[in-house]
User: Which sequence fits this backbone?
């Protein structure tokens, strides 16, 4: 099996891929001809591809997010590798392929991630905080197991959100040992809930965000998470003006730190300061790690990484 | 009766004032002596004052927000007028003074302002929006009649909040006539609720903000208003994901326009754009009008006005 | 008649349009062939189009800003609708078409707009201010009836400038009733003159700006308007150092509010503050209204609107 | 004669000084006593001083900008040297003092500076540019010989404006030799006129700015200079739309480079780019030189210099 | 023993303190009298104090950073507690006081901190990196055991620098376990050296920075640390252009992340990203912890904390 | 001989050019065909060109930075002139062409520039400064004679760096005459060394930067130059903490003035202030001069110039 990430120029390939996009376009010729402008993907990356002669059957056969078997050859076009498809067919049951093997995922199994989150959640000793967290986890339902953490900034893949939360919980535990003055219950609750309304802000399938939802655009995940806490408190009979409720909302609302980054208030509780910087540390390092993993074997520099000022990262020889 | 705003140097004054602040301080002398460092106020302005010989009776007699009769003289100190108190006594019932006459107030009676707001509120034709607005008005209670709109930026006086809302409602009505594509119901609701949680964000008495509340600092009035709408919707059985609920929250959340001004999302509904600019127009012009009203008769330039980049405003001769 | 804004994919069209642009280009074929890359427009919008086989007669027949009759079909290309022209001919007198029907215009007739401006101008009671305003209106000549208010930000169509001014005058009148301390004469003069030198800053035809003029680039409309006032004052024998002259120049110079938005001084007169925020309110709401009017019937979100931070606007179902 | 700049702690002084400020203040004692809070100055610097026992005669004798003879002693107060006056009297004719000897001045004689400016002005070969420049020089009158270039940023002393212009003319001549593509006439005109309206923007006496004028605040020297050019062109029968007029106005309007620094347009002519950077180079270096000259002999670091980001400058031992 | 942090109004105190500052000042009386304006400190905080009658012996007896025994009383002055000293004497050997007990220190013993740093340093497996680190540690000498990490931002106390480094090393170890793709050797070296030249940038005694050194102002600790690495490499015969040398310099140079925060280059190695965010997390949380520790027992809100946008931190009741 | 800069549409050309780039690409045809996408250059400018039928011999014959003789015709494509190559061959010795004649160069001969720099260098009277400068010049070697000063901002051509330095030295000499308080030795050294490590930061051939080096990206020329001075001082036995060494490093480190422009410290020596503004003046004016020189004969406005806020420059008719 050949990973897309390891493709080189002029290679002949016959293999299974995910048809991530499949647009019918027309050449500039007169009369114009139709062709398929395609993105092929596997878990290692993706490549732009063309299928030049498109029959009317083809147009009714191939659709995005379908698994296909293709035969073709890699070519260099404007300094970038692309793929010329000579043959393409749908995958059948006999091929024994599962879509989960062709998409990017967190390196830890989604079920394990969700279990960890639930287990940490049930370890929160303050009953009110625990109930609010569990109410929100229940509200998310099974999206918790597969949602990405963002559209493209970081953790943008299957179970990316849960993976981000789990790593932050580990860091939070370490920091609370280093600094016992921090309220571990509050920090745990803040970490689990900080991005939880991304499941309402974003529309995503198989770990890929297709768009922001109407609610996502008009309210945003920060205020949505805060609304969920109000809803949970009212439902559970916890006062919306109780310090616990206010503190937890403060953590969520302030976790982007500055107004220009989307936070209507700035951190003023120790745990809010901790939450912001734990989030930063995890998001930035993951974005760097993902960028390194997406590099072709021959590259020295990664693609520009948005969350570190669009800088490229250098991969040292080991 | 002599208005503070019209005081000139070397004037002898015997009159009633509000004792807005009254701190006991010590001179640098050795041994130090105690004196009262005082702020006297009336509806036209305020002046710093000193009462040099303080008896122990005095210390148990005079407290902030008390009405007093004083006798003394104005003096120039470091280019600013201040007042030297020679005699001071508490006001008695016979003096027939009411504290309301000594504080800054909106130029329209508070009762009329509240009635206007309630009347506009009941004119909202959409039943859900109307119910949410009325729920929030009920929640505020009588604070609606006397709260200021801010600590010092604009409308910082008795009934300033209600006055700001009424003026904006007038403007909103005009704009909706000019531009019928706007949803007047939604704009009315947005105007009435946009600053309503300032009553929870700020602690205020007699139109003067003493401090931000804990909730005010940690959540802020923008997110608090949004929370109130969630609460109202849940209480009234309106869906928290209904477009009406979302639209109204969007108006509140986006009404400061930019992240660095406190809004976690930016206006994306026509009424949200209208709300922001109506708010701006009213707040800035009121701040200018208030600054002109606070000028001494002999001044050409007002004090710096914070909401217009700390610029001073020139008062033309008419 | 089919409006461009309502075109859908695969529609056959035979109708009149404005040929807004008509560039001769070459295909990548070897040898390359020439084709027309065209923009067709009507009052509802515009669409990119191609005429693939171009004869040498065609090249001498078709030029921008000409009315044409075309026959062709709509196609989807890279997710955007474009038009394939099969036949195209010039419009003849018998077709009975007028170019005014094919361009975007203000919703009020240009003559009425100009009359309103002149009528408000003659209502200015201060004789000096009135004379300066009338001098500038005379200087602009008939450009006042058709110039747009900007290249693309807002009011970018036939008579857009006059429409913007009229709406602002209405708002100004309302505000002066709300706040009688404002000098209505000065505000009227400021509103009429604030963008008047756009007629010198921009080169425009039929409501479309083709480019900035040399003077526009080197001086800009703000300083140009200020120069015009100096010129008017000298011509009319009004002192250039009279408060009226200075106040009016101050309103013009400060109406963009901040230095980074082009104003060399910041508002320091009440009417200057009013002018800036009235301008803002009108420009932003008009940009939103125009964006909604330009949406295709099936869209939920408008194109990004530059003057509101490039945000898209959501169109609610009514 | 003892220079203020060389004063050390505990020194007894009897000498002539300029009474730059003389405020009557009151001690905190009860009853308070009056004293003179004074600034003494000579050409080398200034020092804060107190005269503790003030008679009513004193109050009618001593006023700012008067020359006095004082006897007293230097003292350290809150880490800064100040002066305790024991005796003070007005200067008489017999003392033979001239105020010019007690104020900061440009290091070149004002008459020579003005002559240089006029001589360069008459060397401008283009007749229109020369006439405009000469019109403006005539308009300024004798303020050209004594005005400072700013309130405190740089060249804030007697003849500072003329000195700044002369140094820039020298630099401009050098640059035009290095780069013959520059239009020397235009650059000369731009240098002479770039700050010329500071004489209208600022109210100044003896090289010291007391305040901004009304016109200065509302219009600013950049737009004022531009207005002057319009006035000159109209008066001289030169077209206000002639390239020369526009170019010269462009140089003036753009010479602060960015909008946030006060320029409504940015440099787009080579001479405008040259003018801005010549102005920068001269202003910054002069501010540094002035800061070094104001240092006490024992200091290693100057006071913070506003125009170089409030940095202090280190004076190396030679 | 009474801790300064627990002082309340009107308390009589007789105890040992550090005389952190002792300035001789003069009253405003006529003739003025001399008094001592003093800062008394212990490990819990500091308080402003006055000794009103100063003899000439006193002036030769008391100097900053001396231990004293004082008797006096606490007073409220302008809302702040201060201390009136009635008696003061120098500490003698019999008093058995050590200055170390009166200054703020890291909560871990300096010797242990230094040992940890040295031990981590010797655990670096790459010989070149280890040698460079050890060269720099040797160059710092015993300053490593007592220097603060900053003038006032964070870790501003005895051994603050070493404490900051040790905590970061712990965090670095944790992160390298979470993310094995990171080069632990490089990160260890970067953490130890990132602020090491603060020992040259700042002049400090007993954990208190008195001022920036000349080199500190002109070069800054970031470039100084980079210079040290060049020096180490040349001394040790390691190529200045070796990747190791360059990588380590990159970590140091980029550790403030952005240009406006002092870094001439931005992080482009994974370890550089890690270093920046580990530094942030530790510095911010320590500043918050220090602010909480400095609060009086009755406070709800801390003093403004500079490194978190000057926000105050709320201390929840436990 | 026809200069590229003077090409007009439809011109037939047979001449020698530099093949600055030569990429093999494929048409969109099916099957795709290969063609050469080429940039032809001479000293006056460059033009995009196509050679449509590429043989396999061609692919082994033509490479970038080779001189060729071509025959073809100019065409307009998307409003820009490009060139269609009909014939192309390599240059032979008989053609008598030298690559130096086909690239952009400084207007002064490289040898003369280097001689000037060395001569100024040897005129530095302070022996330590002179030795450090000469050490660095020796380290650069012959790159000094041909390196450009930047990738594209200014002086981006053969010997651009040396030309920039020489012009700045001339300006520096003039300024030191105007202001004798400046240390001319230090300024000379600063000017020569300020950009010297661009020779290590950039990879360049024939005056064209191909990319930033690894060291250039991770360290940057500012810190590299500072490192070189450390190296020079250690090698020459000059103290790295001597004021001279520190001063020179300060000049280099601060010469971009602000942190966001890449300087880790800001100018705090008079010569550092001078260096920054001399650098600015020379770089901006050169960028403008180069932009004017690159204009086609028929243009009125230059291409946008990056270093002056991307503004275009107007070329006045003379």
Assistant:
């Amino acid at each position: 099996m050949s990973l897309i990430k390891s493709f080189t120029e002029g290679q002949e390939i016959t293999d299974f891929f995910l048809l991530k996009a499949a647009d019918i376009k027309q050449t500039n010729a007169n009369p114009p001809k139709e062709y398929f402008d395609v993105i092929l993907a596997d878990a290692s990356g993706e490549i732009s591809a063309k299928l030049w002669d498109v029959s009317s059957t083809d147009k009714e056969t191939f659709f995005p997010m379908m698994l296909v078997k293709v035969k073709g050859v890699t070519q260099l076009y404007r300094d970038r590798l692309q793929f010329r498809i000579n043959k393409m067919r749908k995958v059948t049951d006999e091929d024994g392929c599962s879509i989960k093997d062709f998409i990017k995922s967190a390196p830890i199994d989604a079920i394990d991630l969700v279990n960890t989150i639930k287990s940490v959640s049930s370890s929160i000793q303050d009953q009110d905080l625990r109930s609010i967290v569990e109410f929100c986890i229940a509200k998310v339902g099974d999206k918790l197991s597969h949602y990405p953490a963002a559209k493209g900034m970081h953790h943008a893949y299957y179970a990316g959100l849960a993976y981000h939360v789990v790593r932050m919980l580990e860091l939070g535990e370490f920091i609370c040992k280093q600094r016992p003055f921090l309220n571990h219950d509050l920090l745990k609750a803040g970490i689990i809930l900080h991005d939880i309304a991304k499941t309402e802000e974003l529309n995503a399938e198989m770990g890929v965000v297709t768009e922001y939802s109407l609610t996502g655009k008009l309210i945003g995940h920060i205020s949505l998470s805060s609304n969920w806490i109000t809803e949970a408190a009212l439902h559970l009979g916890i006062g919306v003006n109780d310090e616990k409720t206010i503190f937890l909302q403060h953590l969520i609302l302030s976790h982007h730190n500055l107004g220009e980054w989307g936070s209507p208030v700035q951190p003023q509780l120790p745990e809010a300061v901790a939450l912001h910087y734990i989030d930063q540390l995890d998001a930035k390092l993951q974005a760097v790690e993902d960028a390194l993993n997406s590099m072709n074997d021959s590259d020295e520099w990664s693609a520009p990484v948005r969350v570190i000022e669009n800088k490229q990262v250098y991969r040292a020889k080991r």
User: Anything to note?
Assistant: Residues 133 and 288 of chain D are 30 Å apart (CA to CA). Residues 270-293 of chain D form the longest helix (24 residues).
